[in-house]
Amino acid sequence: MEHTEHTELFPQLDIEKELRQSYLDYSLSVIVGRAIPDARDGLKPVHRRILFAQSILNNTYRNAHKKCARIVGDVIGKYHPHGDSSVYDALVRMAQDFNMRDPLEDGQGNFGSIDGDSAAAMRYTEVRMSRLAGEFLADIEKETVDFRDNYDGSEQEPTVLPTKIPNLLVNGSSGIAVGMATNIPPHNLGELCDALLLLINDPDTGVDELMQFVKGPDFPTGGQVYAGQGLVDAYRTGRGIVKMRGRMEVKERGKNTQSIVITEIPYAVNKSGLVEKIAALVNDRRIEGVSDLKDLSDRNGIRIEVELKRGTIPDLVINALYKYTPMESSFGINMLAVLNNRPVLFNLKSALTCFLDHRREVIIRRSRFDLNKAEARAHIVEGLLKALDIIDEIVALIKASETPQIAKQGLADTFGFTEIQAQSILDMRLQRLTGLEHDKLQEEFDELMKLIAYLKSVLEDSEVLRGVMRDEMVMVKENYATERKTEVVGEALSGIDIEDLIPDEEVVITLSRRGYIKRTTLGNYQQQKRGGKGIAGLNTGDDDFVQDFITTTNHQYLCLFTNKGRMYQLKVYQVPEGSRTAKGMHIANLLPLEKEEFVANVLTVREFAENQHFFFATRSGMVKKSSAALYEKCRKSGLIALSIKDDDELIAVHQVEESDTIVLATKMGMAIRFSCQDVRSMGRGASGVKGISLRKNDEVVSCLPIKDDDNTTEIMSISELGYGKRTCVELYRRQNRGGIGIINFKVSPKTGNVIGSIPVTDEDSLILLTSTNKIIRLGVKEISSYGRATMGIRLVSLDDNATVVGYDTVPTGKGDEDGADTE
């Protein structure tokens, strides 16, 4: 018995079912009442209540600002039973021009900044509705929307605002509910009005036709947005991802110095956070070539200056900024909104159609309200006009009546006036008896009849109703539309290839013994006659000299091999550009070199083919051949190219084929030629095999790959005192590797030791560099061909105590200019 009574008082529940229903009720409450905007006016409840509270306080753009604390107090006291901070945060955001495409509030005071600074306390700031926000509440007093009780039943609030603005798309919205979220980007009001006009005229218009007018999102911070497949998907299905980019431009700062100026940033990016991110990347050397970073932004706009080091390619830094910083961001579009208390995913057309349906209902309800009001007034005016025609009889009846009630009844019974007309006659002033007042009443009656006819046509004729909607859209566009801020550009690339931005022109890479490297356009070096003095070249210090002087093109890989047998890899365009006389940048700023490690040889490669090989030669005569494919993937920290003994060092690396022959030349004028096939292919870590047996104090200075069937190539040998000669390759007979070789150059005190040998043709030009930093360029045709055991001719006139320290060849005519250029 006791158990039965207990069960009746506390019935058993299915806990799973109860939790499911309770959680569903909670989630729907969050979706409808807090996080997701209404599809009709594009507002969440808190924003709607703020605007309505301001309209009740008459806090419109025509009137003075009011303290935000006053607005917040009315909102939470009458309509929004939540914390004041949530209401104030919403109010602040509605006034921020970097968050709202068309702000709904006109703020006065500190309303925060794009740097993430918070607004001042609500007791300090003042606000009023913007002019645009006035259109959200137009005609609300004409029963255009439904009202409901507030949270305690003491006030009435609108369920939706009768807005003339398609705010869901104009200002967008973002919010996270339970199990779903919305993220709608802002758009340009003028474009939306054009699309709405098209949809009014032709309701069957498709999304693709609407996209001819709605180009894409229009963010308040400007920048660029890419109109790719993600945008098409978003407008067709309601979901898609678009790429946003800030705007940068290159400014000349001085002679050979430039700055990258950031003037616009992507939407919702914190500016101070962006500056900190750039600074961190520069400090970590993930962005190279930046000398200074300044944030010069003010109330007139954003201006972040990224000052570049001399010779830095701006496009490289711009590409890095897009790649590593929020200067390129994604916006995930999710056009979810509430319709009929249900979350619905809208595409472009359905969102615009929903707004037009809302406007149609508002216009019909407004017209019905105005019609009832006009008919009521016309009924009264009609009675007054009739009364004026028989005013004497009416006055007599009124005078004879004992009470106003008897007079009203007499007017109804005697002259046929309605109760309302009779009361208005009794309330009529004596001045209405004048002829002028009679004419005014007749004019008012005629206008009322025209208005009634028009309002009936709006309610009865759909074409007239569409005309009203068109006129409203035209009015909104003329009064409120502004120019687009965000540029819509073509499809975004999955990854920008910086090589597309840099011409693949011929350049000279210069590397000094102390590690200063630079890139110079080949045209800076002009061809001269044999024996010329040359032009000023690299400005190194007294204790430095040029080690490598290589002609290549911007798009090739630069493989830098160190004395310790490691390889580092760069693209040629990543080497900072410098003038002909500039010292350049130290290689340690580009590569993570270890202590006492320096770049000993540089090789340029366009691709690492499987059938190609790298051939290594060391100063002690060791050689090694490895597949080029082993060196393609190089970490930033470098990789082991070959193993070298402590008393040896690398002197040359070449890209060879199996059919090539190799010529090793020594400083004391010896040389050996053997087949590349005599050296088997080895792994990266191998130390190699002996290529030549050296005499005492001799060492290898050059390693030359020669094509087996090449009859046009000759070997140009150059001595340190400026002598040189070219010798036919056929004079170098093939031998087995490991021998002492044959005579290559007749070394004497007059010529000095051989500094190197290089393969040349008649079509080449020879570039020589001296220890006094002079550069001379001359045609190979000007140099006579001699036998092996000769010293050749003087190639360059040297200054006192000067020597030749560098050399290279380029095809004749590349970078030439008319005339000779001397120092």
UniProtKB/TrEMBL annotation:
- The active site annotation covers Y124
Which keywords has UniProt assigned to this entry?
ATP-binding, Cytoplasm, DNA-binding, Isomerase, Nucleotide-binding, Topoisomerase
Q: Which EC number(s) does UniProt give?
A: 5.6.2.2
From the Swiss-Prot or TrEMBL record, state where the protein is found.
Cytoplasm
Q: Where is this motif: GyrA-box?
A: 528-534
Gene3D superfamilies (alphabetical): 3.30.1360.40, DNA gyrase/topoisomerase IV, subunit A, C-terminal, Topoisomerase II, domain 5, Topoisomerase, domain 3
Annotated SMART domains: TOP4c
Query: Which InterPro entries does the record cross-reference, listed alphabetically?
Result: GyrA (IPR005743), GyrA/parC_rep (IPR006691), Gyrase/topoIV_suA_C (IPR035516), Topo_IIA-like_dom_sf (IPR013760), Topo_IIA_A/C_ab (IPR013758), Topo_IIA_A_a_sf (IPR013757), Topo_IIA_dom_A (IPR002205), Type_II_DNA_Topoisomerases (IPR050220)
Q: Which residues are listed as membrane-spanning?
A: none
Further information? Few gyrases are as efficient as E.coli at forming negative supercoils. Not all organisms have 2 type II topoisomerases; in organisms with a single type II topoisomerase this enzyme also has to decatenate newly replicated chromosomes.
Sum up the protein's function in the record's words. A type II topoisomerase that negatively supercoils closed circular double-stranded (ds) DNA in an ATP-dependent manner to modulate DNA topology and maintain chromosomes in an underwound state. Negative supercoiling favors strand separation, and DNA replication, transcription, recombination and repair, all of which involve strand separation. Also able to catalyze the interconversion of other topological isomers of dsDNA rings, including catenanes and knotted rings. Type II topoisomerases break and join 2 DNA strands simultaneously in an ATP-dependent manner.
Belongs to which family?
Belongs to the type II topoisomerase GyrA/ParC subunit family.
Q: Which PANTHER family match?
A: DNA GYRASE SUBUNIT A, CHLOROPLASTIC_MITOCHONDRIAL, DNA GYRASE/TOPOISOMERASE SUBUNIT A
Protein name in UniProt: DNA gyrase subunit A
Gene name of this polypeptide: gyrA
